[in-house]
Records
---
Amino acid sequence: SLDRHVSPPWRLSGLTNSYVASVPAQQRLGKRCFAGSADAILQSLNLLRDEKPDIVVVVGADHVYRMDFSQMIAAHIESGAGVTLAATRQPTALA
């Protein structure tokens, strides 16, 4: 597809030799599109089953270009944890 063709020069994720896959709405569980972030992940689980990736990073689109995930992934692998989350502290007024 076009996004796989143009992805090598992007290097959006800070991960060398990695691919950033954008996932469009699939409407897999009914007649409506995603009903929020959690529903988007639920309806996209088939992609994980089909591709069987070693590492999966799930982020909102605005984080793809703002964060270098390589350090977080390295820490995740070293820890042996099942899941690793990244977060930043925000003042309550901005939350």
---
Amino acid sequence: MKVRRVACSVRDRTGNSGCGGTRILDGDCVKYSSIGKYGLYSDLKKMDVGQEKYSHHHYTHHPRSAISLITELGSESNAHGLAKIVTSSDTKRKVIWALMVIIGFTAATLQLSLLVRKYLQFQVVELSEIKDSMPVEFPSVTVCNIEPISWRKLRLLFENGEDTELMQWLNFTMRFKFGNQHPHLTSIRAFYENLGDEAKNISHELKDLLIHCQFNQEACSVENFTTSFDGNYFNCFTFNGGTPEKRLLMHATGPQNGLSLIVSLDNDEPPLGTYGVYNKDSNILHSAGMRLVVHAPNTMPSPVDHGFDIPPGYSSSIGLKAVLNTRLSQPYGNCTTDALIGMKYKNTFFSCLQVMIQSLEIMSQAVY
């Protein structure tokens, strides 16, 4: 006959029970069956799980305070400074760690703001590379006479008495009086402003200026130049200003391998009273010399903005260093097309800007 024994015990404060050290709940009785004492584990496990569920259910009905939540967050945070503030027992250490955390966050915020500001500036990144390679393409060289009018041609025009627009303008200003505007209409500035297409005819010709030409130790002539018109210097002449298929290359450095020019100013017979007169309204009238500008091949020259003066009676030597800018492809680049609108030149930012300004000026005059 099988006998079932029942054991009862009460848990003390230390968690030890009177049932041979077996951990049981207060006031619960454990039955020992014929299976043995090891069957007790599963029964105890079920009671512990039930107790945890009860404790969790009881806890959710009592929300914790904000201080306790912050304390728990700081103690379990991966930011070591916050954890040190919470876990430190000394007030001084808490203050020191708090200051260090504030300084660290301030520095990180400042650095992040600088990075964002730098990104919003959209700066251009350039990678420079210096190469000593030959041959290199020779640039275009444009020369203009600082005195735009050939006084010899102007004298012939007056002597022949041809009925030109210039003569009509001069007769018009001499025949009538215009009150307060009369000094301006009879000034040298008005004379230049009303030349029109005749400016090309009374300006200099390259055959009258060029005495000697040599490039890369070979002779050159007028045929190697192209003529362009500038509003300030009238006729200008460009060396290496032809088509891209006829590129001129330099195979060695030095003055003997570059371009050498000897020019005459063609102003040996100025009208009486005009030579040496200074005009404060213009920086080019009644002066002597050549205006020279070096620019990229097949681009429009701008002597006024990018040129420099060469005085007469001196030998001037100019050294150059080629700089090639290779920009990224689409959608990057300089946002310009290859050809300048309505012209044979390549498009550049400055030339495009000049053409647009001129177009706006013409439109404003037409509206006025």
